[in-house]
Specification:
The chain is an alpha/beta fold. It is 33% helix and 13% strand. The chain contains 15 helices and 14 strands.
Length: 461
């Protein structure tokens, strides 16, 4: 092999050409920054609170106490709790209870709670059902750091277009809500349209089931055997080859045929009767988009602000979930009591956990190029914008962080947040994604400047 110039190419089978990085040890250049590991996060929101310990009920949601989580403990000891549905992933869960939404609610608790969840910002308030967040949400902050320039987060909603309180989870800027996609098929078509790779290149790579790295394998072998190649350059070569493979995944990666068919089968996505199905399809799309590096950040809002879905559980169609959360056949404070409303609410909580488990299973089904699975590279976050059914409290909202964020968090435990602000949770997610201030210090100031800065103690790896 002749001496390398400032830019070198390997040529292999069928005329395949692979550009190489500039090697410090061969041409005397300065060291390059290392490639950042891909990390992903998705925020899944449910509404109307959960059945946790209160004057109304014994604990039906969380395992008892605080500390380590185990598969057997969550599955068997706390089988009567809704979170037992997540037992298979116990060692990769970080359960955070008693998170406080810090800003007062003067009119509709639902409408004023949901804009705070991912922004940790105050809202415009006033009467009615349309308060607006006074700052952008964390999904947009993360997309700016993790996605290619100009690519915003995926924003999904399983719920109707016209309703009392519609989407209010994602905010691209102060008082600027992000319109949520309600059709899994439309979302899939847009994601497919992001690829600009020539079809003939896609077909070549797919038909051969080979990477372009494979087509220049002989030349690569000769290159890495060169004695003057430094350990640093060998590491950079491996990073470069992985980057090539990542590009090829984006070129050829597609949703499995059965999942494409399932997406196409949802013809009326805003219908009440298909709400859980739409949730699953959006979860399929988010996991697939992460695996194909089409996006690194997503949100999924389940139900409108005061989720009115009539869920079907064990073959029975329940009253509106918002009514169940009020324990009466009404949206206000007066109405005929709903028989066994507390148990019905608990069953909906279980369904929400089953749906979240579906997402974790989907992320866990993809292998990671770094070892482990996509769930190990991700942080899947589930939250509820209210703490309880009645009285729809905002100082004990539940949060569950699942995955390992590429080694960014220590998991497998439950934490009592002691009614500290939601901004600490969001700061923790930001840092878990590998994001730091320019001076290398932790990001601790996301959210309203009036809030006490910081992160959840002892969570970041």
């Amino acid at each position: 092999m002749r001496r390398l110039g400032r830019r070198h190419f390997l040529r292999g089978v069928g005329g395949a050409v692979l550009a190489l990085p500039l090697f410090e040890s061969l041409v005397g250049s300065k060291a390059f920054a290392q490639t950042t590991r891909h990390r992903f996060t998705i925020f899944v929101r449910s509404g109307n609170g959960v059945v946790q310990a209160s004057s109304e009920s014994a604990e039906r949601f969380w395992p008892d106490g605080a500390g380590a989580l185990t598969v057997a403990g969550l599955r068997d000891t706390f089988a009567d709790r809704a979170t037992s549905e997540l037992s298979a992933h116990a060692t990769r869960l970080l359960m955070v209870k008693n998170v406080r939404l810090p800003f007062a609610r003067s009119s509709c608790g639902h409408a004023e709670a949901i804009p705070q969840v991912l922004t940790a910002q105050n809202h415009t308030g006033g009467s009615g059902n349309d308060p607006k967040a006074l700052g952008r949400s964390v999904d947009w902050y993360l997309a700016e750091k993790l996605n290619p320039q100009g690519v915003g987060p995926l924003t999904f909603m399983a719920g109707p277009q016209s309703t009392y309180i519609a989407e209010a989870l994602s905010w691209s800027a102060a008082q600027t809500r992000t319109p949520a996609e309600r059709s899994p098929l439309n979302a899939y078509m847009r994601l497919v349209g992001l690829s600009s790779s020539p079809p003939e290149v896609q077909q070549l790579i797919a038909s051969r089931r080979k990477s372009v790295n494979d087509l220049v394998r002989a030349q690569l072998r000769a290159l890495v055997q060169r004695p003057e190649l430094s350990a640093w350059d060998r590491q950079r070569l491996e990073q470069h080859l992985q980057a090539v493979r990542d590009m090829e995944l984006r070129m050829t990666c597609d949703l499995e045929p059965a999942q494409v068919s399932a997406v196409q089968a949802v013809t009326s996505p805003e219908s009440n009767d298909v709400r859980p199905e739409v949730v699953r399809r959006f979860m399929d799309l988010a996991a697939w988009a992460f695996n194909c590096r089409l996006n690194h950040v997503a949100t999924l809002q389940i139900g409108e602000g005061n989720d009115q879905t009539q869920y079907t559980i064990n073959g029975s169609k329940l009253p509106r979930f918002h009514w169940i959360s009020h324990r009466i056949y009404a949206d206000g404070s007066e109405g005929e009591p709903i028989p066994d409303a507390l148990e019905l609410h608990h069953q909906v909580d279980r369904l929400q956990m089953q749906l979240f488990k579906y997402l974790l299973d989907r992320l866990d089904s993809y292998q990671s190029p770094y070892g482990g699975t996509l769930l190990d590279d991700s942080l899947a976050v589930w939250m509820n914008d209210l703490g309880l059914g009645p009285p729809h409290s905002a100082d004990n909202t539940p949060w569950i962080l699942a995955g390992r964020a590429g080694g960014g968090v220590t998991s497998g435990r439950i934490i009592d947040h002691q009614k500290k602000g939601v901004n600490l949770v969001l700061n923790t997610v930001i840092n878990a994604m590998g994001i730091r201030n320019p001076d290398g210090s932790q990001v601790q100031d996301f959210g309203d400047p009036s809030l006490t800065p910081g992160v959840i103690t002892g969570v970041l790896a």
